[in-house]
Amino acid sequence: MADGWSAAKFFEAWTKLARGDELEENEMPFHDRTILRSSEPLLPPRFEHIEFTKPPLLLGHTVAKEEQMKETCATILKVTKEQVEGLRKKANDIPHQDMEMARASDNTQPTRLSLAVDFRSRLKPSLPPGYFGNTVLPTVTSKCVHGDLLAKPLSYAAGKIREAIERITDEYIRSALDYITSQEDVSALRSNFHIRAYTKTPNFLGNPNVYIGSWINLPFYGMDYGWGKPIYVGPGLLNDDGKSFIMSSPTADGSLLIALRLQTEYMDSFKKLFYEDMPR
User: Fold this and answer.
1) Which is an annotated GO molecular function term of this record (predicted)?
2) For helices 264-277 and 94-103, angle between their N-to-C axes, nearest 10 degrees
3) What is the value of pTM for the model shown?
C-alpha cells in the first residue's frame, strides 16, 4: 500500500531509469515499515478519533442508501492564477460552501468535510524522505450546519479546515495507529477514497458531506519517460458524490484544476455558484 507521494517518487525514479540515467543514493526507496507501527504493548487511543466515525446523514434519513443510488456526474473546473490568488486572500472554502448552496439543504442540516493529511513531516522524528508506504491519515472538520456555512464569514469555514489539519500531530498519529490496530475489522474504517468500500456499515461521504483531496504538490508534470512530459494527470476514478481533487494545471501557469463528482441534479447550480463566488 502506498500513498500519492510514494507513487510519485516511484514514477520519478522509473522515468529516470527509462531515460538511461542512474538513481542517486537519496532517490532510493526506504521500505522498512517497522518505523511506522503501533505501540508495543498496544495502548488505548488517547484521542476521540472522529475521522473514523460515520458522517452525518440527511435530516430525516437513517441510512444513506437513497443518496448513494442517485445519478451522479463528473466535471473538471479551471481556476486561473488570478482567481487562486484572490481565494488565498479571502481564505475561502468555496467548494464546500457552494456544494451546500447547490444542494439547498435545510439550515439545520449537519455537514462535515473530509480531507487527507500527509503526516510524514508531522511525526517526531520525521520519516525518511524516501519512505515508501501510506503516510496519509484522514481528518474531518468538526460538525457544522448548513446555515452557519452560508451565514457566517468565510473565515469560519476556513477555520474549520485549519482546525482539522492542525489536529494531526505526532501524538494524534500514534494514537490513530493504535486505534486502527485495535480493530478486529479494519474494513469498517475504510472510506470510499479511491474505491467503493463494501462493508456492512459503509461510510458514504456524499450528500450532505464533502471530500476534498489535494494533488497540488505531487510532481507528476515533471516526469518524462523519454518521449516528453505528460499533458494531463488526474484521478482515474471519481466514484462518489461530493468527492473532489484539486490539482496543478499542466500549463504550469499557476492555475488549478478541480475534478469533482456531484449528484447530477445539483451540478449546474454548483458550477454557476462556483464561478459567481470566484474573485475576478
Assistant:
1) acyltransferase activity, transferring groups other than amino-acyl groups
2) 130
3) 0.89
Q: What are the angstrom distances between the C-alpha of 275 and each of 84, 87, 97, 270?
A: 12, 12, 12, 9
Measured CA to CA in angstroms, residue 243 lies from 147, 188, 237, 266 at distances of: 21, 19, 10, 14
Domain locations in the chain? 4-277
Does residue 44 surpass a pLDDT of 80? yes
CA distances from 89 to 92, 120, 135, 279 (A): 8, 28, 30, 10
| Residue 197 pLDDT level (bands cut at 50, 70, 90) | very low
- Residue 241 in contact with residue 206, Cβ under 8 Å? yes
Which residue, 38, 37, 237, 243, is CA-closest to 133?
37
Residue owning grid cell 488526474: 234
Contacts of 120 (CB under 8 A, 6+ apart): 5, 126, 127, 131, 135
- For the chain, the average pLDDT equals 89
Three cell numbers written together for 36: 511506522
- Could you please report the per-residue DSSP string of 206-239? -TT-EEEEE-TT--GGG--SSS---S----S---
Q: Which residue has better confidence, 112 or 236?
A: 112
Dist. CA 139–CA 166, nearest whole Å: 10
C-alpha cell at 79: 481556476
Q: Which listed CATH number (3.90.1150.10, 3.30.559.10, 3.10.310.20, 3.40.50.150) goes with 4-277? A: 3.30.559.10
Q: Are 279 and 90 in contact (CB under 8 A)?
A: yes
